User: Which sequence fits this backbone?
């Protein structure tokens, strides 16, 4: 009986187990069927996306705001008549767009595409119609796996007139000048400059304000490239007036950013601050985070140059937030580097190191070898300032190897200078724990420094950079002096003087002068059809994703922010820096020719004066900063003075420190006129 019960129990277990398996199997089948049905529905939805869609584009001011699905192409039919003039504007919104125009016989006439630069959202397409019929415009994305949003607008479709052929020809000349400018040789820049100058009166005669504005901007870029900053600013100011009249906020924003950059380079930092703050207001109105990040970085640089390090740090931190929101990893890494450099100036070397290490981590993730190399240089510098010479040399050596692999002679020479300077500094630190190492002993370290400097000197001469050559010669002279080799030190100093005269002579001869000749493009460009980026922004401003090498045309000055990219080298003093100046170069993300360090805090506001103008006393620091920014945007020097009143902290916004009441009253009148502030009082210090 017991055995029978056990058997029944086993049978019962088997039946239950079988039932569970069956249930699981049924559930799995149902799930599989459900998933298969969902897949079929998804596949059906995909199949319903037509790989090609057609639209009719006709009439003046016809506008299409459209969306391309993955792998899709849009065809626009445009019925055109012989003798008509067609002007199209194609604007990308999120991904780059490729546009191709075909004639009635399906012959390709024009192919063009947008760029991923934020200042180039639009391309223009112009044509004089020679054959009546149905023309086809195809729109697709550069990356077929992406969804693309774009817009097309017929700006003009009308019977052509006598001026249109000249307009098309002038546009072709403008495009030729752009190609020459990109070549960035002395000859090509001169030719481009001549074309731009000759085009200005033509655009004015044709009433083409866009052409005039874009050409003025291009002229300013060439002036900038040849270090004629005042002339560059004058052209930009004329261009700004035009774009404001045309109510084009994107162009206005780009020009304002360029004005800020060039003013900063021309050491007009208060004016630069005004332009950047104005650009920030426009970017906020447009709700454009990309341009907003540019203005934050520009403001960070200008405040750094003004010695307002805490304010600079604040702007860079805001830029970092925007970069992370945009998932712009490279921009994030660059901004981390900027923050690190400010901490270096504030002598918080550990924080500087931490931010550089974080920057390196991001560059590693996106496989940006150039960024890694530059950041390793900065990390080496931070370790050197922390007196950890072994780690400094380790990072400088890694940077040097990467620079050599990248075939970046400028970066290689910069790193060699840093290594040489490390040996000089460490050999003089007799109390350092590293001094016991033979590498850092006084005579051995100085000889190694001399060897590194000489290697760098050879590279600067090979790439023909007399300014950097001059800097390295100054280091060599100092090293010879430290080694007691006075004769060699004197010879090197004489080389510096001779080189200085050469630099001055070359600066005079490099200025472009217009010859009022317009290049004949008829052999290279059809006069009846043109595609151009004239309606886009080839501004001095460029985004930080530019891959242009240091020798290419530069569109935004490079202070010590890597995002505000490449600059012609600035004139440097030939005197040898003291040990306190720490020559080792900050290398802000891919820009090895960056300046060494931001200036120490300005003493302008620290000068004693009997009177100041108080504009307000506020309980919140943010409100005081906002009022201070208002003063700065008007070109006035405002600052915040923290104090205590009735037991509470107040933030007093003040302007200037004046020696006399008359001087203060004169400044108060300027305050009222420029900033429209009527409530203020003159306070004693």
Assistant:
């Amino acid at each position: 009986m017991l055995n029978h019960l056990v058997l029944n129990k086993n049978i019962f277990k088997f039946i239950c187990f079988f039932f569970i398996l069956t249930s699981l199997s049924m559930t799995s089948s149902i799930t599989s069927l459900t998933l298969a049905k969902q897949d079929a529905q998804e596949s059906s939805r995909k199949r319903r996306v037509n790989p090609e869609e057609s639209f009719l584009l006709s009439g003046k001011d016809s506008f299409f705001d459209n969306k391309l699905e993955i792998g899709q192409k849009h065809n626009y039919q445009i019925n055109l008549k012989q003798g008509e003039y067609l002007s199209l504007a194609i604007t990308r919104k999120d991904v780059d767009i490729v546009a191709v125009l075909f004639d009635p016989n399906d012959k390709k006439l024009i192919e063009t595409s947008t760029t991923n630069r934020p200042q180039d959202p639009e391309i223009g397409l112009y044509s004089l119609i020679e054959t009546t019929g149905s023309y086809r415009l195809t729109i697709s994305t550069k990356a077929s796996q992406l969804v693309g949003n774009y817009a097309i607008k017929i700006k003009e479709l009308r019977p052509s007139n006598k001026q249109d052929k000249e307009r098309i020809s002038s546009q072709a000349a403008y495009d030729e000048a752009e190609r020459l400018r990109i070549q960035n040789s002395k000859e090509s820049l001169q030719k481009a400059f001549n074309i731009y100058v000759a085009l200005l009166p033509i655009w004015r005669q044709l009433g083409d304000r866009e052409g005039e504005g874009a050409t003025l901007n291009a002229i300013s870029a060439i002036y900038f490239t040849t270090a004629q900053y005042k002339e560059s600013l004058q052209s930009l100011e004329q261009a700004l007036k035009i774009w404001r009249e045309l109510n084009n906020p994107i162009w206005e924003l780009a020009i304002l950013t360029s004005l800020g950059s060039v003013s900063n380079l021309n050491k007009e930092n208060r004016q630069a601050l005004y332009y950047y703050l104005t650009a920030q207001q426009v970017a906020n109105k447009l709700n454009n985070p990309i341009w907003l990040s540019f203005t934050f970085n520009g403001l960070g640089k200008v405040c750094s140059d003004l010695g307002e390090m805490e304010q600079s740090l604040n702007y860079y931190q805001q830029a970092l937030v925007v970069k992370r929101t945009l998932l712009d990893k490279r921009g994030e890494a660059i901004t981390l580097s900027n923050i690190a450099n400010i901490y270096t100036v504030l002598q918080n070397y550990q924080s500087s190191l931490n931010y550089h290490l974080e920057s390196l981590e991001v560059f590693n993730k996106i496989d940006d070898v150039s960024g890694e190399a530059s950041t390793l240089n900065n990390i080496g510098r931070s370790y050197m300032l922390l007196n950890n010479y072994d780690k400094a040399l380790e990072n400088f050596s890694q940077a040097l190897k990467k620079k050599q692999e990248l075939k970046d002679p400028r970066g290689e020479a910069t790193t060699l200078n840093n290594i040489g300077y490390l040996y000089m500094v460490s050999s003089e630190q007799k109390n350092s724990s590293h001094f016991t190492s033979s590498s850092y002993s006084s005579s051995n370290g100085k000889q190694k420094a001399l060897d590194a400097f000489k290697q760098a000197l050879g590279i600067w001469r090979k790439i023909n950079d007399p300014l950097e050559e001059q800097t390295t010669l100054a280091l060599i002279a100092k090293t010879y002096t430290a080694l007691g080799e006075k004769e060699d030190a004197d010879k090197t100093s004489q080389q510096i003087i001779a080189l200085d005269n050469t630099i001055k002579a070359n600066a005079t001869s490099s200025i472009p002068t217009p010859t009022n000749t317009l290049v004949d493009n008829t052999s290279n460009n059809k006069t009846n059809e043109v595609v151009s980026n004239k309606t886009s922004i080839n501004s001095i401003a460029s985004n930080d994703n530019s891959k242009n090498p240091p020798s290419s045309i530069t569109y935004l000055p490079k202070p010590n922010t890597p995002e505000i990219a490449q600059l012609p080298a600035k004139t440097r003093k030939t005197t040898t820096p003291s040990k306190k100046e720490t020559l080792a170069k900050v290398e802000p993300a891919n820009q090895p020719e960056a300046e060494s360090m931001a200036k120490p805090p300005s003493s302008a506001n620290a000068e004693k004066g009997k009177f100041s103008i108080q504009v307000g006393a506020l309980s919140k620091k943010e409100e005081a900063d906002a009022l201070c920014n208002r003063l700065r945007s008007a070109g006035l020097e405002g600052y915040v003075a923290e104090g205590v009143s009735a037991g509470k902290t107040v933030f007093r916004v003040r302007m200037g420190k004046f020696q006399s009441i008359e001087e203060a009253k004169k400044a108060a009148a300027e305050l009222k006129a420029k900033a429209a502030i009527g409530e203020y009082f003159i306070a004693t210090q």
